[in-house]
Amino acid sequence: CREIIVTEWQALPGQNSFKLLYHSSMSWDDAQNYCRIKHWGLASVLHDESHRNIHDLLEPTGAQSSWLGLRRTDTRQWRWSDGSGTLQVGSRNCVSLHMQYSQWNSVSCETPYHFVCYSKSELQMSYN
């Protein structure tokens, strides 16, 4: 895998700044594990402005869908990577951001998608 670091820094509401890093598509679990190895996590989108910022950052890459850090737990509750909860999203177990419609979709966790990782100081975005 080839990684390209983009040195543009931006701020997300409630978080510090982040930088973009492109990587290959993966399943939700593989993407989450990749993020956690880096001491990050799949992005939790807790504000409308964060959703718009991530969509605007992914749009120029041509990615059709991207994993977000939202997954249904064993107890059928929806949880973000940071542990916060949310309302019911759909019938499948993982959530992606569909770029064309800028909406969240519940999808199979095995589907390989680009992904967005974050930390308090950085955000990583995957792209082929």
Please provide a written account of the structure.
By secondary structure, the chain is an alpha+beta fold. The protein has one domain (4-125): Mannose-Binding Protein A, Chain A (Roll), CATH 3.10.100.10. The chain has helices at residues 28-37, 48-58; strands at 4-11, 17-22, 41-42, 65-72, 78-80, 94-98, 103-107, 114-118, 123-125. The chain is globular and about 35 Å long. The model is unreliable at 1-13 and 16-20 (pLDDT under 50).
Sequence stretches where pLDDT stays below 50 over 5 or more residues? 1-13, 16-20
CATH class: Alpha Beta
Radius of gyration: 13 Å
Global outline: globular
Query: CATH superfamily, please?
Result: Mannose-Binding Protein A, subunit A
Q: How many strand segments?
A: 9
Q: N-to-C SSE series?
A: EEHEHEEEEEE
What's the architecture, going by CATH? Answer: Roll
**Amino-to-carboxy terminus distance:** 9 Å
Structure annotation, total helices: 2
Largest sheet: 7 strands, mixed
> Strand percentage, roughly?
35-45%
Subunit arrangement of the protein:
single chain
How would you state the average pLDDT, rounded?
A: 74
- Proportion in helices: 10-25%
Domains (count): 1
Could you tell me the CATH topology label: Mannose-Binding Protein A, Chain A
Keywords: Disulfide bond
InterPro entries: C-type_lectin-like, C-type_lectin-like/link_sf, C-type_lectin_CS, CTDL_fold
Protein name: C-type lectin domain-containing protein
